Fold this protein.
Amino acid sequence: MVNKLQQKKKGSTSILIVIMMVVLMVLGLAIMTTALSNKSLSDKKIDWKTDYYALESKANQVIAQIMTEIDAINQKQLSRAAGFAKIETLLSEATSSYQMPSFAGDEIAQLSMTISSQDGTKNLAIRLQVIGADQVAELKLKILEYKQWQ
């Protein structure tokens, strides 16, 4: 009788080891999948940040050039018409799209520009406000909105 009981329990450890191995393999695969997806997401985040800061750098250069032109207008080195024409030329060359009003006697005018990445998949939209665009007041530039999207 004792021999029969020992014979029935003889393969139970093998089954437990096989089940344990399957559980460990499934757990290992889950950990590996999670690690790979985390790496993929971190690579995308690095690419996104690199593109964003490149766009922001380009936008800051354009804004600095606009501010230089506004300073030239304020210091009477350029007429308002010539200064705004230079700003429009700058926007047309440096941005993928822009909107610029005529500045015909308005005290406040808004500029909108969109700067795109090399591949055109990422954009940075900026809205600027020129205060004092009438013929008498000194011009000031104010950034109203930075909007980034993919």
About this structure: The chain has a mean pLDDT of 83. The first helix runs from residue 2 to 9.
